[in-house]
Design goal:
By secondary structure, this protein is α+β, with helices and mostly antiparallel strands. It is built from one helix and three strands. It has a three-stranded mixed β-sheet. It is elongated.
């Protein structure tokens, strides 16, 4: 499953930083990508933020809803 990850320069990449992971993918409804000052505030404080592109949301196209297509 593809995941987009956002972190600040200098954030440890060894698994010790806290992470907020979100995602949605069902019924052909994609997760809209938008700017959030709340997310930016978390990243500034050392939190790693991830968005899972779950199959079924339509984010990656119709072909990606089929098994083993992504």
């Amino acid at each position: 499953m593809p995941i987009s990850i956002l972190h600040a320069t200098g954030t440890p990449r060894d698994g010790s930083a806290p992470m907020l992971l979100g995602g949605y993918g069902a019924y052909g409804i994609p997760s809209n990508v938008l700017f959030s000052s709340n997310v930016l505030s978390l990243v500034d404080r050392g939190v790693v933020v991830g968005i899972a592109h779950v199959r079924g949301g339509g984010d990656l196209g119709k072909a990606c809803t089929m098994p083993a297509a992504c």
